[in-house]
Amino acid sequence: MSDLTEPKTALRRYLQESRDALLWKLDGLGERDLRMPRTPTGTNLIGIVKHMANVEIGYFGDTFGREWPTPEERIAEHVFETDPQADWYASEDETCDGIIDLYRRVWVFAEATIEELPLDALGSVPWWGEGNQVSLERIIVHVITDLSRHVGQADILREQLDGAAGLTSDVSNLPDSAYDWPAYVAKLTALAERY
To answer: pTM of the entire structure?
Structure first.
């Protein structure tokens, strides 16, 4: 077991746990369910994964002068001029399995950056503007924060879809299956209706 008292090891662990949590929210769902927009702004499960793949390519690649080996797989900057949501959905010529595979390969790419550089290594995020040197440590924390937010979105989308909820596929972190969820929701509804 790795030493979680070492900062880089701990950061890598939390980053990977969030990545794993995002992908397990997709387990067992077909193309239609993964692509279907679930909010008024079109948020969909596979779009969250595609977005995070592009986020990690940028932060762990561009920021530290590392090029993604297959640039045709990421959304080019000019595409956002005509479609600012281009990284938030699977296009007609993409498959959900292909996007999941891309994201797993992005993990390897990002992990290489983290492995090769010390936490105090400096980079520059091109889309943050001029003169903004950032450390690898700050980038890892930034990506964990962004990813955790999107995992929360995926939690809610999946629960609304088929009731699947919880921390991980093995440990739900919720009361056991005998818990009376309808009664709990009724209680919360009654509390809210007092106001």
So the answer is: 0.91
